[in-house]
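Researcher: Let's continue the batch. This sequence belongs to Putative ABC transport system ATP-binding protein, and it's 232 residues. Same format as the previous ones, please.
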Amino acid sequence: MQASDTPIIRLEGVKKVFHTDEVETHAVADVRCEIPRGQYVCIAGPSGSGKTTLLSLIGLLDTPTAGTYLLDGREVSRLSATQRARVRNERIGFVFQSFNLIGDLTVAENIELPLTYRAMPAAERRRRVESALERVGMSHRARHLPAQLSGGQQQRVAVARAVAGEPLLLLADEPTGNLDSRNGDAVMGLLRELHRSGTTIVMVTHNPEYARQAERTIHLFDGRVVEEGGHA
Ligand code: ADP
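Model: Same format as before. Here are the structure tokens for Putative ABC transport system ATP-binding protein:
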């Protein structure tokens, strides 16, 4: 098998159980799925169906209770927290609903910060920050603080931060949830461009119109995949 045929994500029998106050919640009950390189996938389902938990497992923010997870062919479900952090930082970009920018760092510093945890010369970091800012149309805001930007602009910076790492995989959890429709459309346009340039994207959204922009939707209910579909 050629490396490029290896799915970016392969989950087998993946479960996540939370225990709180003697209540057992099977947030992800038994998920098996493969996501090939370059695919744009939407995870949909009602509130509480396990979308965010599944995205956290895929993003190595959490570990499964059972099952295996191959990320680009490598088993990653039993890694230590330090190893997970390294793989996450080098291979996965995140865009969250709440932007998650650091308030006392400038736009450029926010984008550069994750790159400083890698063995990367300063000149390469600066090149990547500039190119990511250009990509999202925010070069003129490089020295601003997040609070000086609109929500839409902050989310564009968050997308720039995610892509500056040139991730294998981009994960987006309700990326337009805090945006009006104009800014939401702009952020979705950025994701489409990233997909066209070859990035694998897994997105959670409640917005049916945005969900249709993905190539495939995985529907969850009670932590299980209940339906899968490609889009015309
Ligand atoms: P969705 O993103 O589809 O709304 P979630 O993944 O957030 O669903 O949650 C799935 C289920 O797991 C819910 O019942 C939720 O209450 C529960 N859950 C999620 N995270 C935790 C946690 N850290 N501790 C306990 N229960 C959790």
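Researcher: Any comment?
Model: The longest helix spans residues 181-196.
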